Amino acid sequence: ESETALTKPKLPAQLWIGGMGAVCTTEGAEDEKDVEPAPAPPTKLVLLGPGQSGKSTLVKQLLRIHRGGMEIKRRRVYLEPINNDILTSLEILLDKVNKYKKDDAKFAYSETLEGDVEKLSEFLDTGDRHVAIDEDIGNIIQKFWNDPGVQRCCYSVNNPEFEITPSATYFFEHAYRICRKGYIPSTDDVIRVRWRTTGIYEEVFEVKGERYVLVDLGGQKSERRKWLKCFANGDVTAVLFVAALSGFAMGCKENYNVTQLEEAFNLFENFASPEKQEFDSKIPVILFLNKFDIFCENVKTQNITDCPLLKGFKVRG
To answer: For binding GTP, which residues are annotated in this chain's numbering (predicted)?
Structure first.
C-alpha cells in the first residue's frame, strides 16, 4: 500500500458550514473584534467495509505517515497478536502441505526437515500461544518456510479451507528475528499483523494544521449493527469504504462460498445506495480499493474470472 499524504477532500459546501467558527458576544458590536473565533471542527472520516479489507492497516499506515511512527510502549501491545498470527498461519500451512504432498511430490518439503517438522507439530500441539516463541522454534519456522515445496504449495494451491492471511508470509520470513529474546515489534510488524477490530476506535492526527479524526469500525457481520451509531451526532465529514481487490480469489471467513470481493460489492451497494442509506445521503462515500500489491501477485497464478463478480472480465491487449 502506498504511503500517500492525506488531503482534505473536495466535499459539498454544506458540509463545511460552521467550519470557520462563529462569533457570539453579549457585548456591543465594537467588542466583536476582540473575540477569538471558535476552532474549526475536525474532518471526521468513518472507515467502513467488510472484514479482512485492511481498514485497520490503513489507519496504522496513516498514523505512521502523519505521527511519525508508534512509541515502544504501544508496539509492545502487539507481541501476542503477532505470535498468534504466526502460529495460527503456520498450523494452517502445515496441514495444507501434509494434505497435498501425499498426492503430489512437488508440494513436499525436503526430507532433511522431517525432524524439524516433528518439533513444530509437537510445539503447535502443546505450546502456549500467549507466550513468546523461543529462538529454536523461530529458526525452524523460517527454515520450513524457505523450503521450495512449502512455498509452492502455499502459493499455487487455492483452497479456502487452508487460507492464510497475506501478512503470514512476511512473519514467516522474519520468524527468527521475531523470536529472538528482547524482541520489540517494529512499526512495519505492527502494520502487518492481523488484528480483528471489534467496537469503535478513534484516532486523531493533524495534517498542515488540519485536525482529522479516523473512526475504525469492525467489518464482521456481528459488528455492522454498530455502524449507524457513528452518524448519530451529524458530525461525519465523509465515509471511506475500504474493499480489498485481492479478495477476488479469497473466500469470506463467515462463508467460504462467497469471495471477499463479492461481499464487499454487495455491502457497498447496500450501504452506499441513496435508496437504501440509513444516514444523511449528502455525506460523500469514497471507495478505496485496497491491497493492490497482493492483487497483482494473485492474478499471476489465479484466473480473475473465477470470481463470479468478474466472470465477464476480458483482458485487453
So the answer is: 216-220, 290-293
